Amino acid sequence: MSSQETTEYYSNDFDWEKLRERIEDDPTLRYHFLPFTSQSSSSSSSILDSQSWNHFHARHSTGKFFKERRYLFKEFPELASCGEYSKVLEVGCGNGSTAISILRCKENILVFACDCSTEALDRATEIINASNVWLVCDSCCIMPLQKQNTPISDFENSEGGSSDITSSKKSECCIGPMDFVTLIFTLSAVPLDRMSTAVAECFSVLKPGGLLFFRDYGLYDMTMLRFEADQRVGFREYKRSDGTRSYFFSLDIARDLFLAAGFIEVELVYCCVKSVNRRKQKTMHRVWIHGKFQKPM
User: Which residues form the signal peptide (predicted)?
Assistant: First the structure.
């Protein structure tokens, strides 16, 4: 393992406050901080968002765009030390880069996954099947990823089973609420006015004492600064030319979202990583949000 791989992913390679000052003093970036007049959202926006992500995953169907998130056990060691048949729900699984990382590194863990994009689910199914790991325990007759537009809250139905990943028979280890929920670069793709609903759904499927692991784009990340003024669709909220969107979180906004849903804050920090594009000889300042939140006992 290289020294770069062993670096902690939420270590401070640079000071976030100094980055903020530099960016806010730059007149060419001032449009990022101007007030934004809110616009009423279309009733079909969720359908349009799903279509945009379908197109996105179809364009990146080779999987080379995504890498396995092998940092997860370093950042969230609770996954490594969890008990046998602990249940993890990955919200916004994409091509399975989080799920497969967990399954490769931890035996006897049950991973449930959902996504708004049927293209993403198809790709994740292919990758999981080819990896010789399973999404639920061997005693279950499984359908790895089912293409349903089912609310997250339906994971915890009246019988304690799963509505998105189903089995023709349920063993004891697959029944009940989730021990962990992962929101890894997912919430930023949800329109701001629907984020609180999404977080509340995550809260509802966790068992008391369960943990939610959060990682997403932070305020003043380099990707935020690349957006043009006409790509703003809200304050700190942007839409790409392909229709997919991205929001950039401050600690306060992230904290307010999760605490309002009933979570207890365990960890919440900016992850500031400086990387160098050696081919272009360009230094990149990446800012992510790292968070852990717990459902009260």
Answer: none
